[in-house]
Design a protein that fits this description.
It comes from Acanthochromis polyacanthus (spiny chromis). InterPro entries: Metallo-B-lactamas, NDM-1-like, RibonucZ/Hydroxyglut_hydro. The chain is α/β, with parallel strands linked by helices. It is built from 7 helices and 13 strands. It has a 7-stranded mixed β-sheet with strand order 1-2-3-4-5-6-7. A 6-stranded mixed β-sheet has the order 8-9-10-11-12-13. It starts with a helix and ends in a 6-residue tail after the last helix.
Length: about 280
């Protein structure tokens, strides 16, 4: 299967594109965001990497034909989980938070929580392909990101917000001028996951409190999440406050611990040679 068949995209205007993997039919299917700038373009999250994302972007002319733009496309992972980082190895420039650099550089399929089944892939990307052979390929990040770093695209800037909880290196990218928040898996309009390896509930609560602060200070109008559909500030406020209330209860803490234990055992069994 070609990259042209594997992916599909939608233009949201102002140099922003929403890309998805058509035949990865799972709740784990991550949104891929492409944002054009006057001097630098960035792709935020890269999906599974089963077909060439750069080929798809180039083949569909999503970056235009500006001869003055010489910087290679920068791929940033909002975190290292497999559904967001699997295609990073296809890019010359790769950015991730410092806490998850080693996971990517070592191809650690435990920390990247690699878990893929044949039933999630509606059409095989190549003859004889099987999910059990899928692994996140090791990649050495060229951009090691920290809280407060600014990614300069020329006519717009993205500020790195370190928001751990879902994973230890989870980040949001905040376009302050346009009040856009690329939130990865820090927040999306669905059940938030805090029971994976390197998830941390107290960190997640702090991150959600920070999200509430962004809404209260009117710094976010639209959220472009790692999964599902986009949503606005009011919905962001409700999702974040609901998580805080739920996570602080004793039954929720016990349930999270139980799920975390099971997830760790399952992932170690599925990825026995991964570093832990």
């Amino acid at each position: 299967m070609s990259a042209a068949d594997w992916y599909a995209h939608k233009s949201l205007g102002d140099g922003l594109f929403w890309i998805q993997e058509r035949f990865y039919q799972s709740e784990n299917r991550a949104n891929i965001w492409l944002l054009r700038g006057s001097h630098q373009d960035v792709v935020i999250d890269t999906g599974l990497g089963l077909r060439s994302l750069p080929d798809y972007i180039d083949g569909n002319g999503l970056l235009g034909k500006d001869p003055q733009r010489k910087n290679p496309l920068l791929a940033i992972a909002t975190h290292a989980h497999f559904d967001h980082s699997g295609g990073l190895h296809q890019f010359q420039q790769v950015g991730v938070h410092s806490a998850e650099v080693d996971a990517l550089a070592n191809g650690d399929n435990f920390e990247t929580v690699t878990w893929l089944s044949d039933r999630e892939i509606a059409e095989a990307p190549s003859p004889g392909w099987r999910a059990r052979h899928y692994k996140v390929k090791a990649v050495q990040p060229t951009h090691i990101l920290q809280e407060g770093d600014v990614i300069n695209l020329g006519d717009r800037q993205l500020t790195v917000l370190h928001m751990p909880g879902h994973s230890r290196g989870s980040i949001c990218l905040h376009d302050r001028d346009n009040k856009l928040l690329f939130s990865g898996d820090v927040v999306y309009d669905g059940a938030m996951i805090d029971w994976l390896p390197y998830s941390h509930v107290s960190d997640y609560i702090s991150s959600c409190e920070r999200l509430v602060g962004l809404v209260d200070s009117e710094q976010v109008d639209q959220v472009l999440p790692g999964h599902y559909n986009t949503f606005g500030a009011k919905r962001l406020h409700r999702i974040a406050t609901t998580y805080i209330s739920r996570a602080e209860t004793c039954p929720a803490k016990f349930s999270t611990f139980a799920w975390s234990t099971l997830a760790g055992v399952a992932l170690r069994a599925f990825n026995p040679r991964s570093a832990c």
